[in-house]
Model the fold of this input.
Amino acid sequence: MRAFAELLDRLVLTPQRNAKIKLMADYFRSAPDPDRGYALAAIAGTLTLKTVKPNVLRQLVLERMDEVLFRYSYDYVGDLAETISLVWEPPADSQTAAGDLSLGTVMHQLETAGRANVHGLVRDLLDQLEGSSRFAFLKLITGGLRIGVSARLVKQALADMGTVDVTEIETLWHGLTPPYVSLFEWLDGKSPKPELDMPAVFHAVMLATPVGENDLTALDPKDFAAEWKWDGIRVQLANLAGTRRLYSRSGDDISGAFPDILEAADFEGIIDGELLVGGTMRTNRATRTFSDLQQRLNRKTVTRKMLDDYPAFIRGYDLLFSGDRDMRPENFLTRRAALSALIENAAPSHFDLSPLVAFSTWEELDRLRKDPPDPVIEGIMLKRLDSAYTSGRSKGPWFKWKREPYNVDAVLMYAQRGHGKRSSYYSDFTFGVWTESNGKDVLVPVGKAYFGFTDAELEVLDRYVRNNTVERFGPVRSIRAEADHGFVVEVAFEGINFSSRHKSGVAMRFPRISRLRTDKLPRDADRLETLLAMIGTPENNLSEPAEPI
Amino acid sequence: MKPETLLYPTPKGLFCEKGGFYIDPVQPVERALITHGHADHARSGHSHVMATRETLDIMRIRYGDAFCISTQEAVLGTRTTIGEVTVSFHPAGHVLGSAQIAVEAAGIRIVVSGDYKRRRDPTCLSFEPVPCDVFITEATFGLPVFHHPDDRGEIAKLLTSLRQFPERAHLVGAYALGKAQRIIALMREAGYDAPIFIHGALARLCDYYESEGIALGDLRPATVDAKDKQSFAGAVVVGPPSAFADKWARRFPDPIPIFASGWMMVRQRAKQRGVELPIIISDHCDWPELIATINEIKPGEVWVTHGREEALVRWCELQGIAARPLHLVGYDDEGE
Done:
């Protein structure tokens, strides 16, 4: 348990992605089975445990401790599980624990305990575990690890540990269950790759590379099909041998949040597409924005009202399996024709086909890209007609060619120190634009950015922050920002939407600082009205109907 | 005589009227008795200072020879008469030279603990319990949440990280007097014999510890011209915590911020400070040590000062021990 507890403690405080991967991979290499499998399940969120209510824990601790002293402690720490883990003392006459209780043992005891015995078992385990382990244990049984590690990241750590590609882990993932002994034996090189008996597993998706400068000049437009790149999330829908699953691009099972789509999927096979909210083109209703889609994401269950207010559908891109026939070796045109036929017969309210974009030259396509017919389009996808469906991101068969980002000039308002390499730099910035308030022009914050600038530009920004600090709030500094004195930056972003959670009423997607505008004064920066005008109104923008080739 | 008339708090600090002296005064006074060399307890500008030889040396290093007009060395365990009272100094186990001060008059003895701890520390003498009528205890970590772990385990975390991330500089924030030297000594005990790099603010104090017979091994200044940045890859750099947020830290490759402090017990504290590797090592008592000390000394009365007074007073009440908070101002409980 101690090794797992130490891993959690390190992960919570480690901001860098690569360092997190390293910490996890090292743990998986050194921890025994089944401990590491349970740890993996806990991190990836696949552990099913009877959870213990906070009130039960509070009762347990008050059996041992004065209520006033507990209250002082809880007020100071602020987190119930952490408070209990810190104040807990085994009874003075208790035998000291014989070494470190393993995670596997703890899990086994929890799994086999009857409902009525949980109370006593939790108390015994708290007595036997030491400080950090108590905390990890309490986090496990209260069901909230919150360590800032995505399922994707832990799969990358597994891939690093076994020096295999992460797509192999993603493909296996949903066919395996905790404590993942066969998976680790394979990653250790001790046994062959596990065979799956469930057909509706996730298959690693095919990814596109961005169009770089001069990438297209050597290519013939006639070899490619173009499609709009829709601004939803990429998904894979599987319906095979009675099992239906909806997976995100990285293989997370998101079926629970989308019962409407699973129910409507009456075809057998696996399709690749974009998950969107709104109406399909086949019902002639508008596709809604990404922020509407967000209402449906990251939920375990979904209410009737949610389903009515935010109807979800899939816009088909590709076909991986038709029934149980593997279509991936076929070329794009063959797969596309089969997909088109499949969607023709699927529920019109929940499935449509991503239309192809006719073009004859790259210049023509570039014009279309810069002025797409629907605000929920974020660019163009290019797919080689003769390409097979291959997992991962290899350059050549598929390209993505994004719409130009939006740009505004904004004024730096607050800065915060970064992490790791940047811990001595003010590198996280809040920026604002002008708006009128009580007859005066004031700056209102519209976003935060911590990348986009070069190292040399960061030196300039950091120096400005240090020399122009107005106030400090903990790690945050407010920066001098007046009409004639301040720092203007050009902010590039991918999209903008209304947001009730922000004072300005707007929220940007992927904002970054694209240029330092030392040539401009804050009074020349943009106004909030300019940003509001950038927000598209989808109702007015119906897309072209599908046209199969 | 009531104990409250022998020693009582004033804006300048704890005052003994019968002896005409203050203990750890926070403003310049005529006569000061100093428990230990930390800046919030040992200030410059007093006329006459009485302290252990080591504490006087440390004050001289920090403030220069003119830190006071005259000094008097306190020999541990020796009774000295000042005015109408007798005082004696006893080891406190906090940092090199740290002492408790016992003040006696008319058959009443009050012990001022200063800051203290009960753990083994290779860099200073261990705390010595002194029977008394009133024990004035610090309460920096006076909450039941504070259970400082074994320091060997904490040092092991640092050594593990050095193996896991050999390309990164390990920046250990530690208070310049006491904590820094203790961390270095503990690392040496754990078998780490590579050079340790130190911030300029630590140099003279580390030299002094060495001259007092506390071996710290190969210490080198953490100064370098910019082109040599990679020479700190996998190195341990010890400095005052404030230096790591400063531009000074930029000379190190992809540093891991580490902080050696009792406060690191609480995860949110570590997170707020941007600490990636908390090392829970404290020069103060944790909760069980505070309680064990009171149980061991069995004073008639406990006065609680700087820190979380209310919890320790509550605990004393539950045990039937007379206790009250002693509201002293000017001590920095966050500085640990």
DSSP finds eight helices and 19 strands in chain B. Chain B has a mean pLDDT of 93. Residues 228 and 251 of chain B are 9 Å apart (CA to CA). Chain B touches chain A at residues 143-147, 149, 157, 164-165, 244-250, 254-257, 265-268, 270-272, 274-278, 288, 308, 310-311, 314-315, 318 (CB under 8 Å).
